[in-house]
Design a protein that fits this description.
It is a single chain. Helix 3 packs parallel to helix 7 (about 200-250), helix 8 (about 255-270) packs antiparallel against helix 9 (about 275-290) and helix 9 packs antiparallel against helix 10 (about 295-310). The protein is of the alpha/beta class and about 800 residues long. The strands form six sheets. The protein has a seven-stranded mixed beta sheet. A five-stranded mixed β-barrel has the order 1-3-4-5-6. It has a five-stranded parallel beta sheet with strand order 8-9-10-7-11, sandwiched between helices. It is elongated and about 145 Å long. The relative contact order is 0.05. The longest helix is centred in the first third of the chain and has 53 residues, at about 200-250. It has 28 helices and 25 strands.
Length: about 800
Amino acid sequence: MAAETKERKETQLETVKVLPLLPLRGLLVFPFMVIHLDVGREKSVRAIEEAMVRDRIIFLATQKEAQTDDPGEDDIYQVGTIAEVKQLLKLPGGTIRVLVEGLARAKINRYLSHEPFFQVEVEEYPEKPVALTPEIQALTRFLINQFEQYVKISKRIPPETVVSIISLEDPGRLADVIASQMTLKVEEKQKILEAVDIKDRLEKLASIIANELEIAELERKINIRVRKQMEKAQKEYYLREQLKAIQKELGEKDERVAEAEELREKIAKAKLPREVRERALKEVERLEKMPPMAAEAAVVRTYLDWLLSLPWTKQTRDRLDLKVAAKILDEDHYGLEKVKERILEYLAIRHLSKKMKGPILCFVGPPGVGKTSLARSIARALERKFVRMSLGGVRDEAEIRGHRRTYVGALPGRIIQGMKQAGSKNPVFLLDEIDKMSMDFRGDPSAALLEVLDPEQNNSFSDHYIEIPFDLSHVMFITTANALHNIPRPLLDRMEVIYISGYTEEEKVQIAQRYLIPKQMESHGLKPEQLRITESAIRKIIREYTREAGVRNLERQIAAICRKAAKKIVNGEAQTVRVGIQNLHQFLGIARYRYGVAEKHDDVGIATGLAWTETGGEVLTIEVTVMKGKGKLTLTGKLGEVMKESAQAGYSYIRSRAKQLGLDEDFYEKYDIHIHVPEGAIPKDGPSAGITMATALASALTGKKVRSDVAMTGEITLRGRVLPIGGVKEKVLAAHRAGIKTVILPKENKKDLEEIPAKVRSKMEFVLVDHMDQVLARALVEEKDQGERRTRKEEKVNAGAAAGAEK
């Protein structure tokens, strides 16, 4: 027993050694491995010198981080290799090249000194003979097979190495040699070095080789794919060069030359202006020098296509026969005399002067009056091409001017696109809904339109994509809008504004009979003899089923009648459908509006005013209530600031005229007054309701009734003067639609009465005033007048009852 312990201690003493340490950077030495090392760091050189002085034995351990120049104990792996220095060669610059051979694995027990070199106490792991069990044999064979495959795929290791490895019988040494030959990370090699147990070492190496094999296989596949692509490209290049040589021998041209010559022929035939032709030829030269598959080549081709497709010199001949043009305009639209007159004037001047620039018109009016269709009709009358561009919601300046060619997918703006679509340089170009444009961070499209709609500038319109001035001076630009206040002033200043008012009842009847009914019957597949709509039925639709300035809703109601009639005819219920006043409700349901709503009866504190809206004129009722209080004035009905100020001005006027109106001079201290404009959800503003509110106030305070058949409009001042207002035609038409017979207007608006259709003027009485006293004298009903009006109403009622009994 004592002998065994003594033998163990002697063995232990033999395995523990004190050696100089050489830290390795980026590489690792296995037992039985012979390798050259270049040593340059001072500590490492001292360690080598110490080993040479002693017995040439040194300990090699790898650094964890190769970048560390002065490693400490924690920066060096604990397990390394005891090695023998075989050769030593000093190089210029203080570097030493040594040839070392790994002897055995060892582990650092402790560091004995750090200066002038690392000296460590290491414990050697002697390689013990291992029993060749079936498991060890299987692992060894598997390792050899995997390594052979790795050598075949990677081709980084010479085949002779495989032969020398197969001859090794020791499994441990086999694993070390294979690990040393493979290109592995230092961390993975360190794991193999630290595996003292042979079985564990073989298993770890087998796992690493399997992973490396997978990566090597992927590398091989990628390499094959890349090589094939390169071979294909080289093959194509070779064949293309051969094709060029063959074409040269046969006297034929290659694709690029042929394309360039074809483009030059097109440019020559296109009769382009000199500047455009020079630019196009320059681009063809660029295209000719480019490789066929270059991305820029596609951009140049697209640009040339646009240059060649634009109508630089093409234009249509105008139809200058005024009678034919007038006939076409009358065929398409009823009324609208101002617009038709303006177009005929333009044709007359074109007849005399060929150099006249195209006019820039702006049709302003409520929806449904035919602004857009009128532009199409003008194009037909002139025999010009027609292009329509909707500006509603446009908020990007590039929509007008286009994008520069540097952007991917760049195109010209919609003006140039429209010119290409027209195919001539003098189309009728409609810019629809110009008042619906907006702006954001991308720019202001209305500013870009300044150049387009300026006759002095649009002969050289610059598009960002085309980059060559394009002449728009021959284009007839027509814009449409519902209201002018949304159009920027500089843009509005460049256009000739033509107002299109709402239609009268008579005009709507004619439009329905001449245009709407035939159009809807044709679109619903009805023949003229299958559907008859009487004139009285049309008038009832206009009065009781629609209330609009235009005819859109009227057309919808006629379409509804056509649908119902088509259903009856298809079901066999009737061969011919006749629609009159008596059966109109069967087609359209109950009436939606009350015609002549203002003709009910006179009332105290209620006056009828007239308002202008974007959809035409409207009848506005203003109500005033007087209550006991402390002189508070309340205004309701979602009124704007200007309208509130008008109410206060009217109230101040009534207070100043208290004595003449028979009121106590301190009435404003005893009563609260509430002014309300019904339909409270709709915003209202403007000064034109001033005299209406003053009249309602005077009526409520004096107890005198306001005539129900009188409507009024006008601005009031504190001194009672009545100032002129706008939108007279629309307001008068609204009063006419509501059945009002008398309209009070400011005297200065007398000139506007000429715009009102003669048939409407003949049915209405216009009272022109310049002071509020005249308004009250006409609008308020005196007691004597009240009795007379009541008698007349009773007579009408009795006459109606008698007629009913007689019937």
